[in-house]
Amino acid sequence: MPASTEAPTRVGAVSPASATSAAVDSRLTPGGPGYRRMSFALFLAGVATFALLYSTQALLPLISGDFGVAASEASWTVAAATGGLALFVLPMSALSERFGRRTVMTASLAVAVTVGLLVPFAPSLTALVVLRAVQGAALAGLPASATAYLAEEVRPKALVTAIGLFVAGNSVGGMSGRVITGWVAQEWGWRVAVGVIGAIAVACAVAFRLLLPAPKHFVAGSLRPRVLLGTVRAHLGDPLLRRLYAIGALFMTVFGGVYTVIGYRLTEAPFSLPQGIVGSIFLVYLVGTVSASTAGRLVGRLGRRGALYAAGGTTAAGLLLSLAGSLPLVLLGLVLITGGFFAGHAVASSAVSKTATHGRAQASALYQSAYYIGSSAGSTVGALAFHAGGWTGTVGVGLLAVLGVVSITVLGTRAARAEQRLATV
């Protein structure tokens, strides 16, 4: 058996043809050895990432009360974390090209969980925002490196499913973090709540490092700025990748705005729910777990663009339904928003990994950067819209973002048909 199937590949170790052949023969596949360990390890990484990244989101009303600030100011504890991730995801992806996906993911989780244990002791809102920004920057090593790892180590036919499982871990982390913090904060305050999330993330980080198989198909790249900039320019010059980046940003604008503000809406009249119940509302993330993990089947039935239309339509229906004054209808709206968002995210992110033929970490990093810029924008703009026009304002922002998703997908459909016509000439 070629040596490249036994240990991480180094530049120049094997010829391109033999490396490609070995990669096709030995990549992980569902049911094969190592696939379950890999899937569970990255699932746990996804849990830790989203639990830490959004650990303050369900607690914003309590943070507002503790520091005496408005929703738009407290929302910076979320926006700073996602903004830090968006800014650092590209540099971290470059490090993963040189030092390896598993190494960078491990280091990122280690720093993020350490900061997570310091967050409960923040003496002011400013200090809290700074710690959250550092935490987000540390977490930047996870998303792009994870999708690049999967693109290298998993057979292409199983890639959408594998990435869907990682995204499902994100949904579980987001859900459990918010549910746990809601009930813990109701009894002991928001500081103890985020401390509990930090401890859970430590356990996930340790298990991740122990379970994740060593990469067999990683090829070390260059850290030279000129090479990195050339790769980035090539990705940004690809019309399909640009559309996918914009779709990821717009989907996350909806999601970030809705879940930043929903706690304020549900704790105020006419609902006036206690913090623990508000935290439990995030159990609807389980819908996202299902929709993300089944995104591969959705693409198989409808095609990529058809799946994006379905995800956008489902999200828009949920936004409109959430305008109702009935709590069951609001919850059903959140279910549709969550299911549509996670399906759309899984489809778009997996399409990026399949489209990029080189510099996959940078291609994924650009997607993640756009995605988390959308999260920061959604958190901030959604909170401002809520302050100005209530929940209707937040929904309006979300509907505009969904309209953007549909419009970009229509452009992609027209571009694909034009290419087909040219091919038949």
Q: How would you describe what is shown here?
A:
- It is a single chain.
- With 425 residues, the chain is an all-alpha fold.
- The chain contains 17 helices and no strands.
- The protein has helices at residues 16-26, 35-53, 60-67, 71-74, 76-99, 101-118, 125-139, 143-153, 159-188, 190-211, 225-236, 239-267, 275-280, 285-293, 295-321, 327-355, 360-424.
- The longest helix has 65 residues, at 360-424.
What are the key terms here?
425 residues, mainly alpha, 80% helix, disordered N terminus
Task: Write the SSE topology.
Blueprint (H helix, E strand, L loop, with lengths): L15 H11 L8 H19 L6 H8 L3 H4 L1 H24 L1 H18 L6 H15 L3 H11 L5 H30 L1 H22 L13 H12 L2 H29 L7 H6 L4 H9 L1 H27 L5 H29 L4 H65 L1
Helix pairs in contact: 2-6, 2-9, 2-10, 5-6, 5-7, 5-17, 6-7, 6-8, 6-10, 8-9, 8-17, 9-10, 9-14, 9-16, 12-16, 12-17, 14-16, 15-16, 15-17
Distance between the termini: 46 Å
Largest sheet: none
Low-confidence stretches: 1-24
Helix content: over 70%
Number of strands: 0
Computed over alpha carbons, the radius of gyration is: 21 Å
- What's the rounded overall pLDDT mean? 85
> Which secondary-structure class do the elements indicate?
mainly alpha
Order of helices and strands: HHHHHHHHHHHHHHHHH
What sort of overall outline do the alpha carbons produce when their principal axes are compared? globular
Q: Count the helices. How many?
A: 17
Q: Beta fraction of the residues? A: under 5%
